[in-house]
Design brief:
The chain is mainly alpha-helical. Helix content is about 60%, strand content about 10%. The chain has helices spanning about 15-50, 50-60, 70-75, 80-90, 110-130; strands at about 65-70, 95-100, 105-110. A 3-stranded antiparallel sheet has the order 1-3-2.
């Protein structure tokens, strides 16, 4: 069965300017997405540090310690499964990393200097804005 002339699709003339303007818009969209991704990651980190258990783990590791899950759990007074979940979230947020020693994982902060600065800033903010100053 032959296709008649009325069924042939003729492409529109190529509009270089329209194509380039779309790419320019894509660059703007990529910039917007990058800013939104940055804001999203910052809010995730704040939300994570807003969890008292996670905050305690980060504070403990901020002293430059390298500890196993069990050691961290004992130090913060939480169960190993709960501590393991928190450590998983900290790894996903790129706050903590681990190294294996045989069957055991030992955790440390991925960026200790930057995390220490965040903790110091939070501490200073709380001290300066606290209703009860001591």
């Amino acid at each position: 069965m032959a296709i008649g002339r009325e069924h042939v699709i003729v492409p529109a003339p190529f509009d270089t300017l329209a194509v380039l303007s779309r790419f320019r818009n894509c660059e703007n969209m990529i910039s917007i997405v990058a800013v939104e991704e940055l804001s999203y990651r910052q809010s995730r980190l704040c939300r994570l540090l807003g969890n008292p258990v996670a905050f305690n783990v980060v504070s403990l590791l901020a002293d430059g310690k390298v500890m196993s899950t069990g050691e961290i759990a004992r130090a913060i007074g939480r169960s190993v499964p709960r501590t393991s979940n928190i450590l998983g979230a900290l790894r996903l947020a790129e706050v903590a990393r681990y190294e294996t020693e045989g069957r055991h994982a030992r955790y440390r902060l991925k960026y200790p200097r930057e995390i220490r600065r965040i903790l110091d800033a939070l501490s200073g903010f709380v001290k300066n804005t606290s209703a009860v100053r001591g």
